[in-house]
Amino acid sequence: MNLEQIAQQAMDYLDSVGVAAEYEVKAVSYDIDQLTVFTDDYVIGMPSNAPEGTGEYFIGKIKKYYPQKSPAK
Description:
Blueprint: H1 3-16, E1 21-29, E2 32-39, E3 43-47, H2 54-65
Antiparallel strand pairs: 1-2, 2-3
């Protein structure tokens, strides 16, 4: 997955749990980009040169900070 795809997955998840968020992908050097997700509580980032599988780790970190809520009974 590229950073834009990871960002979209993060935004979709955060939207599903009712968390307002924004993201930014910007160049930090000529060959490395940085994805940053901003919420009211956290700033979470990852570089484009992160090891394979880091996208899943990144989304997992967001899910840990913002878990799905059980429906009220």
